[in-house]
Design a protein that fits this description.
Length: 308
């Protein structure tokens, strides 16, 4: 499936009509440990690169564990300002990661329908999961792009998308010509499967495609038409926060700029949410600062990992 993962929260001065500073909390759903070398440290994890990615845009991170009740997830939802679904390798229909994601997905749909802005971002496996949640089916096929950096084949929709709004023209050109996006996946949603599914067609705009090693044209970037839901089959966080020389992490100036702008975009989407904690002490205990990352460079492609 996929190889990388984060979530978030941030302290800012909110919209024009508010003068009191408040703290935004964006969450990252923990991922199930599947690598034998990692199991001694915990059953779920978040790579630190995701955390740094969100924090770099001025947001704090609150991890969400997979062992809570539905009522507890509903309580968390009312206090956070966005959700990041990270990469990994787990079942998209039967795993706890899928089950908990579905709870937040339904809460986000209901909230946005009521005018309560709540963004969701899916990276790699997270994007794949969004397509399963929207369509009700696992439509993935083999679309291998394993350990390779690629330019994106942008669609016309990319140039009017929210995700790339305000990107410099030079970066938009570089995005189509330079290998700025790191891919680490065996599966993907083919453009053909997308175009044959009414639910997906109605819900998402296709922002970019790529071609896998086996010749399959797969969707690499999506954006919700009505809802603030976004997905990338690639990993923007690795551009700035992962350094394994054996892996194809893009580190060029344009790659760094791309990663930074997308992090700021997602955090700014969270700024539109007015969810907040009632108790600052409870809030402080929920943040990622209560956990210590483990050095993982000697047994994984990550420098640091948070285990839970």
């Amino acid at each position: 499936n996929c190889v990388v993962k984060p979530l978030k929260e941030t302290c800012i001065f909110v919209p024009q009509f508010e003068t009191v500073p408040r703290c935004l909390n964006n969450s990252i759903l923990t991922q199930i440990v599947s690598d034998e070398a990692m199991k001694q440290y915990g059953s779920t994890y978040i790579p630190a690169s995701y955390v740094k990615y969100i924090e770099s845009a001025g947001s704090r991170v609150m991890p969400i564990k997979l062992t809570l009740s539905t009522a507890e997830y509903e309580n968390i939802f009312s206090r956070i300002n966005g959700l990041l679904l990270i990469g990994g390798a787990t079942d998209l229909e039967t795993s706890d990661f899928a089950r908990v994601s579905k709870i937040f997905y339904r809460l986000a749909l209901k909230a946005n329908d009521a005018g309560d802005h709540f963004p969701i971002w899916g990276t790699c496996l997270g994007m794949q999961l969004l397509t399963v949640l929207v369509s009700g089916h696992n439509l993935l096929t083999t679309a291998t792009a394993e350990n390779v950096a690629l330019p994106l084949n942008l669609t016309q929709a990319a140039f009017s998308s929210r995700m790339f709004q305000g990107f410099p023209e030079e970066l938009m050109q570089a995005l189509q010509r330079e290998p700025l996006t790191g891919h680490f996946h065996h599966y993907g949603l083919s453009l053909k499967a997308f175009n044959q599914n009414k639910e997906l067609m109605n819900f998402f705009s296709v922002i970019s495609t790529n071609v896998g090693e086996n010749g399959v044209q797969f969707i690499s970037t999506i954006e919700g038409k009505r809802y603030p839901f976004y997905g990338v089959q690639w990993h923007p966080e690795v551009n700035r926060f992962q350094w394994d020389s054996k892996l194809s992490f893009p580190h060029s100036p344009h790659a760094i700029q791309l990663s930074s702008l997308l992090a700021h975009f997602f955090v700014n989407e969270g700024r539109k949410s007015l969810h907040e904690f009632d108790d600052p002490k409870e809030e402080a205990l929920k943040l990622i600062y209560s956990y210590t990352p483990v050095f993982a460079g000697n047994f994984s492609g990550y420098e640091q990992i948070y285990f839970f």
